[in-house]
Amino acid sequence: MWKLKGENISKSFGGVTALKEVNFGIKEGEIVGLIGPNGAGKTTLFNVVAGVYRPDKGSIYLDDENVTNLNSHQLCRKGIARTFQIPRPFPELTCLENIMVSIIGREEKIHNSNEKLKEAKKFLKFVDLDNYGNILAKNLNLIQKKRLEVARALATNPKIMLLDEVFAGLNNTEIRDAVKLIERMKNEFEITQFWIEHVMGVIMEIAERIIVLDNGEKISEGKPIEVARDPKVIEAYLGDTDV
Amino acid sequence: MSSLFVNIFNGIVIGTIYALSALGISLILGAMNVMNFAHGEFYIFGAYFSYFFSRSLGFSPLIAILLSLGLIFWIGFLVEKTLIHSTYGNLMDSLIITFILSIVLQNIALIIFGPYPKKPPSWIIGSINVLDLFYYSSQRLITFIVAVLLLILFFIVMNKTWFGKIVRAISADREVASLMGINCDKVNSFSFGFGVALAGVAGAIISPIFGVTPMGGVGIGLTSVVVVVLGGMGSFKGCVIGGLLLGIIENIGVAYISSGYRNIFGFIILILILLFRPSGLFGTTIK
Amino acid sequence: MKKSNKNLLLVIFLGIVVCLPFLLDDYWLHVAILTLFYVIMASSWNLLAGYTGQVSFAHAAFAAIGAYISGILSVQMSISPLITLLFGSVIAAIFGLGLGLLCLKMGGIYLSLTTLGFSEIVHIIIKNEYEITRGTMGLEVPNLLGFYSKTAYFYIMLLVTFIIIFFLAKLIKSDHGLKFKSVLNDELAASSIGIDTVKVRVIAFTISSAIAGFAGGLYGHYLLLITPEMSSLSQMFMILAMTIIGGMGTLSGPIAGAVFLQVLSEYIRIFGKFHLLLFGVISLLVIKFAPGGIVGLYRKITQSKTDPLKIETQSKYDY
Lengths: 243, 287, 319
Prior knowledge:
The complex is a heterotrimer of chains A (243), B (287) and C (319). Chain A is α/β, with parallel strands linked by helices and 243 residues long.
C-alpha cells in the first residue's frame, strides 16, 4: 500500500550519525512534509532515497520493489525525481536544453525531435518560463532557477517527487506563487510529493502528513495539527535558534 | 642473500624520499583540493638549486639545501597566488594548469641546466659495514637518517603547530572549517609552498646519490601520486607506509626484472588499487 | 554575425584549404599535413575535456598505440596499412574502454592520474621493447598508399579530418552531445534526472581514444618512421595547449589552436628549444586572461554589440 517506504534507514559519515533507524512511508497521491531543525538529517534522508548515498543499514521500497542499491539515474528511471536545496540547473545550457536532458534520459524514448521539442515546451510553459527557452540557465534569478529545476524534474515523468526546501529564500508573494505551482503539480500530473521544509510554515497548510526528524531520528509523525502540538517537536524546535 | 638486503635497504631509503614527496601532494590535496601534477618538477628544482648553491656558489651542502628549501617554498607560494588561486572549485582547471606548469618548469630546467645529469657534492664518502651483513654507502645511510628526521619534523608540524591543526581541520571538512571561521584562502598559499617544499627537499637530499635531469621529475611526480593513492587519499600515515612499500617493491622489481621498467611497478599497483581497494590502505575515496 | 556571412566565410576558408597543395611548396605542405593531424587530435581531446569535463593525459599515448599497432602489423604480417589502420584504432578504443571502466566511476582526479600513468607506461614499453618496436631507433613502417605523394596524402588527411570534424559536430549537436554537456555542467544534477553519467563518460572516452588511434596510424604511415616521441608528454602537451589556446568546448577552437601553434612553431624555429616553454607560457596566459581562447576572443569582439542575454545555441533545439 505504500508508494515509497523506508525501513530502518541508518547512515553515518566518519563516525557522525546522520540518520538512525528512520522509518517512513508515503501513500500514492499524498503530500508528505519532512521537517526538522538544522542538521536533523533531512537532506541526508533525501540523498539516501534518491540514491546519492547508500544507507549503512535499512532498505527502501518503491511500489514494494526493493530499490536500496540502485544509483541515482536508475531510481530516476523508476520514477523518483528530486530538486535540490540550492537549485542546480545546468548553467551553460539553455532552459529548453535543461529540460531536454530529462526527456532524453527517460526510459521510454521519444524518437521524433519535434515531439521532443513539444514535450519540453510543455514543461517550460507549466512553470511560466516559456519566454526563456533560449536563455542560458545561469542568467536566471533564484526563483526562476527553482522553477526550472521543478520543470526539469517533472519532465522525467516521475511518480514521486522529492522537493528540498522549495520556499527557502522566497518572499511571501513568491511563496504564494510556488504554492499554486505545487497544487497544480498535484492536480495536473498526479504526482506524489515528499517535501523538506526547514520552517514550519506553509508546509503545515499543504501537507497531509508531516514527519519530524531531529538528530537523525524520527521524533514525531502525523497530521500537521497533531505534530505542531507534539511536545517533542516543540522542544526540538526550541533548541533551534533559526526559527 | 646480502644483495637482497641491499635491495630492500635501497628501497627503504628511496621509500622515505617518496614518502616526503607524497606528503607534499597529500597536504596540497587535503588543504586545497588541488592535485598538483607539477610536483615532480619542484622536486628536480630542489635538487638543481642545491646543486647551484653548492657547486656554483660554493656553499656547504647543508646551507645549500636550506637555501634551496626556502627558495622552493617561495616559488610555490607565488605560483599559488598567481596561477592556482583562481581555480578553486574547478578541479579540471587545476589539473590542466599544474600539467602545463610541469612542462614549463621542465623546459626552464632544460634551458638553464642542460639535458645532462647534475650532481651536488656528496656529504660524506666511504661505506659502512651494516651488522656484518653487507657494506652500505655512508651517503645513502645519512640521506636516510635526514629523510627520517624530516618525516618526524613533518608530523610534529602537523600535530603541534596552529598551521598543522588548521590544515587538518580543513582536510577533514572544508565546510565545517569555514564555519569555524578559518580562512581557507590564507592557508592555501602557505600550504602549497609547504607542500612543494617537501618535494624540493626530497630532491635536494637524494640528488647527491642519483643526480638530477630535467625530465627526472615526471617519474617521481607520478610515483608520489601513486603513493598517495596507495596509502589512501587524505592519510598522512598512509603516505609514509605507501612510500616505503613502493620503494621496496620497485627496487626488488628493478633488481630481478628490468631497470627500464622502474615506473611500471607503481602503475601496476595503481591499477590493482583502483580495481580492488579504491580507498587505498588507510584512506577514503574523494569525490 | 549573420548566418549567410558566416557560411560565405566558411566556404572561402574551405576553398583555400582545398587549394593548398597548389599554393604551398613541399615543406609547407608537410607542415599542413602535420597540422591536420593535430586538428584531429585536439578536436577529439576537446570532446573529452571540453564537452564532458574529463582531463585525459593519454591522448598522445592512444595515437602512439594506433601508430605502433598498425605499423607492427603491416610490417610483420605484411597486411595492407589500409586494414591495419583500423586495427590500430580498434585496439586504442579497447584500451580507452578499459581505462574508462577502471577509473571513471571514481571521478576526475583518478582519470587524470591513471591516464598520466598509462601514458608514461606506453612510452616506457615502446622504448624498452626494442625487438618489437625498435625502441628509440624508431620503427620503419610502409606508406599507406604504396607510393609517395605529399599531395595525395594531404587530401587523404583532409578528407579524414572533414569526416571526423563533421562526425564530432553531429555528435555534439545530437542528444548524446546534450548528455555530455549535462555531465560537464553538473554531474549530480544529471544523474538525478536519469543520465547514467559513468556510461556517458566511458562512451566519450572510448570514441575519443578510437579517433586518436586512427589519427596516430594515419600519421605514422605518412612519417614512415615512428618513434617513442609520439607518446611523450610533450606531445600530449601540444594537443592540450592547442585546444586551450584555440578555445576549449567549442568546435572551431581546437582547429584554430592547431593551425596557430603549428604555424607559430615554424616561425620560431630558430628558437628551437624554447618553443615548448613559449607555448606553455602562452597557454597559462590564455587560461588566466582569456579562458575562451582564440574563439572566445573572436566571439567577444563580434558579439559585444548585441544583446548579451541572447546566445547562439549549439544544439538543434531552438525555442
